[in-house]
Structure formats: C-alpha cells, structure tokens
Model the fold of this input.
Amino acid sequence: MAYDEALAGRIRELIGSEPGLTEQKMFGGLAFLIGGNMAIAASGQGGVLVRVDPTRSDALVATTSASPMEMRGRQMRGWLRIDAGDVRTKRQLASWVELGTSYARGLPAKPARG
Done:
C-alpha cells in the first residue's frame, strides 16, 4: 500500500515553514525530517508514524490511540503508529505533528548527505 498523499499534504501544510525541513521516502511512506531527524511520516500502512521522546512512549500508548511501532516483530520505543481514523481532523493531526516536530527539533542535527 502506498502512503496517503492527501495525508502527506495535510502534514506539509502544518509544518511546511519549519526550518531545516526535508522530505524523504522511508518505511514505505513519506517522512518529514527536521535537521535530518524524522519527526512524522505518512505511513505506507496508513495513518502516521510519529517519533517521540522514548521516555514518553509508554504513557502515550496508555493515554492515546497510539500503538508502538513494530519493526521485524520488535517494538520500537520512541516510535508510535497512529491509525488514519485517529488523524482525520486538523486538530487531531496537529497534536501528533507537534509532538514529533518538538522532539525532532531537540535532537542534534545530522550532517547533510551528499
């Protein structure tokens, strides 16, 4: 399944003016990176992937609709999956975009690939 281009456009509208923003295809979707660090992605499996502070992962899973991202059968702390139905409204999507971008902004910038 390809990522939802309309959802990617909605994310772009929310963070398009973010300094250091780049887009990159990864995880079967379209990721939005700040300083080379992924903040949020329109997932190829539907919905979004959001990068958050790993120390907040369990609390966010317990109190929101998020579930841990799994890669090769292993849960990835700090990476959350949110179903498409839970980011239907601008307000719902904006809260996840803010979580991802605020975490990515606080990480050291990665050198540009050339």
The helical segments are 5-15, 57-63, 90-105.
